[in-house]
Specification:
Helices cover 60% and strands 7% of the residues. It is an alpha+beta fold. It has a domain of 136 residues. Strands 3-2-1-4 form a four-stranded mixed beta sheet. Helix 2 runs parallel beside helix 8 and helix 6 runs antiparallel to helix 8.
């Protein structure tokens, strides 16, 4: 009897102290879809200029009123998306370099060369000695591909946002909702494939994990 009582005491103490392990409920299909979409959107955001992504994420909740929009909110979020898309296109053709004076210079690619923003020297010979030959930074067909893909990636992220969907597409049916939810997944595959097959050497303004080119 004593042995039987001693074997039951730990079980009783464990029950009283509430240390019985309970299995967590399995994730629902809806939770899995949301997690997958958020993860994909986060990965896609790494392909975009950091400032553009932060501006959209900071302003979108206010401009959409959390998804409950008036006509003015629809105008605001539409303008925000348009400006951010233009910003993505612009920053995709920016570049940076370290001059012969060890200073960092930024510029935008043109059809002929690189237009440098922050170089103030007037002498053309000194400019060429400091910055080197900028013809190699001119616009190329590959830049057009990256501009188009970058803008499409941003639009995919923007229209995949639940608040933007509720604001701009309040009457969207189940088919449209399903398309908007899964669109970032398809865009992630396509954009990753494009950037793998056609990598760019540009070190654009606002992009992460880029080191400027040295002259």
């Amino acid at each position: 009897m004593a042995a039987s009582s001693s074997t039951r005491m730990p079980e009783s103490r464990e029950t009283e102290e509430g240390h019985v392990a309970r299995a967590s409920p399995p994730p629902t299909p809806t939770t899995l879809v949301i997690d997958k979409t958020l993860s994909t959107a986060a990965n896609l955001a790494q392909l975009l200029p950091t400032g553009t992504v932060l501006a959209f994420q900071a302003l979108a909740p206010s401009f959409t009123r959390g998804g409950v929009c008036y006509a003015s909110n629809r105008c605001l979020i539409s303008v925000l998306i348009a400006l951010d898309a233009v910003s993505c296109a612009f920053f995709s053709i920016t570049d940076s370099l370290v001059g012969a004076d060890n200073k960092l210079y930024y510029g935008v690619a043109t059809l002929r060369s690189l237009y440098v923003f922050n170089y103030n020297g007037a002498d053309e010979e000194v400019r060429r000695r400091v910055l080197g030959d900028l013809v190699e930074y001119r616009l190329r067909p590959l830049d057009c591909v990256h501009v188009v893909v970058t803008v499409l990636v941003f639009l995919t992220i923007a229209f995949g946002d639940a608040m933007v969907q509720n604001c701009l597409f309040p009457d969207a049916g189940p088919n449209a909702r399903e398309l908007l939810v899964n669109l970032p997944l398809g865009a992630g595959v396509v954009s990753t494939l494009v950037f793998m097959l056609f990598p760019t050497s540009r070190k654009g303004i606002g992009y992460t994990n880029t080191a400027p080119t040295s002259q």
